[in-house]
Amino acid sequence: MKKALFFTSLIAILLCFEGLQAQHVAFPLPLKKNLVKRLTEQLAPKPETNWKKLNRVGVDLSEVAFVNWNAGGSNSISGLAEVVLERNYSDSNKKWRNKLVTRYGVNSQEGQEIRKTDDMLELTSDFGYRRDTLSNWYYSAKFRFASQFTNGYKYPDTSTPISQFMAPGYVFVGVGGEYGQRLDNLSIYASPLTYKSTFVLDQNLANNGAFGVTPAVRDADGNIIREGSNFNSELGILLQSSLKARVMDNINLTNLVNLYTDYLNSFGNIDIDWQLNLNFKVNSFVLAKVGSHLKYDNDIKITETNVDGDEVTMGARTQWKQQLGIGVIVDF
Fold this sequence. Notes:
Structural class: mainly beta
Helix content: 10-25%
Distance between the termini: 27 Å
Number of helices: 3
Strand order of the largest sheet: 1-2-3-4-5-6-7-10-11-12-13-16
Shape: globular
Largest sheet: 12 strands, antiparallel, barrel
Order of helices and strands: HHEEEEEEEHEEEEEEEEE
Strand content: over 45%
């Protein structure tokens, strides 16, 4: 109220100068117009928008150092950086949600080279439309792209990468229906038509048939007759459930489950992607996190070394990653 009264008084003073100028008192006209324009813009209410945005940057750090520690141990330092960007549109009948998540973590331990601990690049976009506000069912279309930034290795071997940027890279495009009274908190999505593309742009990995692509054709001496495919496509069913809930005032839970099966290749063999995270908010900038990420993909085979020292390709295995960290987050 005081601010509005102050600006109103300034405008009134400028109007007085208008009267003085009419009596041949000089006052710079451009300066007067700029001041009136700026004061009017500050007093005017900001227009409402259906867009909401989120820009979040977070950094987790941990360090252990020993000096004459009789129990033993090695010095180490770990860091994890995360960037989350969201641009979401919503009105009475339409919702359009866009999200970019990037995450990268490294660990440096005494006597070892720097090792990667986390690497994620994911872009998702989904659009939903409902015919009236009485229904909680949306006709929905979803897009998802996922890959990584740098080479992945089966440590301690760092000579041969087992993954790279766009090796693999995944693209999901599907149409279906989504149900939820408040989609940002709880939603269930079912798509009878979801197209999955797997890219393996590294030719060495493609020749080995990594991530489900067709491997190279070799002769009896192991020479390549035909290069392996860099691309694999599937068409199947996708079921997705998303839950965001406040467990307590400073504890938030996020649960995301994706189930996918291909119509043509091993129908009924379900690929699983399940993420469960608990965020403990200490204050506006400090956040502690506990996370679990479980995956099963029938196209990703595990290699093991046999007694003769040869690499043998085994079947698919359940993959699991657990995270625990505390760090600083900044929203802007």
